[in-house]
Amino acid sequence: MIDLSATLIGFASFVLVVLTICGVAYYSADGLQSWAESKFKKSSDDSSL
């Protein structure tokens, strides 16, 4: 049977990694948005949609 403390450490590590990824994405959101807009820019003939 898995020890409860090992389970809590594993779960806490997972939550910390997810929150860190979200924090980095939030911190660099402007850069990510400008990159995405330049990468996936619609062509002028698609403007009628």
Architecture blueprint of SSEs:
Layout: H1 4-27, H2 29-39
Describe what is shown at a glance.
By secondary structure, the protein is an all-alpha fold. The protein is built from two helices and no strands.
Would you mind describing this structure in some detail?
There is one protein chain. This protein has 49 residues and is mainly alpha-helical. It contains two helices and no strands. It has helices at 4-27, 29-39. It is rod-shaped. The relative contact order is 0.07. The mean pLDDT is 85.
Short descriptors:
49 residues; mainly alpha; 2 helices
What is the count of helical runs?
Answer: 2
- Roughly what fraction of the amino acids lie in strands? under 5%
Uncertain ranges: none
Largest sheet: number of strands, sense, barrel closure: none
Radius of gyration: 20 Å
N→C terminal distance: 58 Å
Rough shape?
rod-shaped
Helix-strand pattern, N to C?
HH
- Give the helix level as a range of percent: over 70%
Instruction: Give the number of DSSP strands.
Output: 0
Structural class, from helix and strand content? mainly alpha
Mean pLDDT: 85
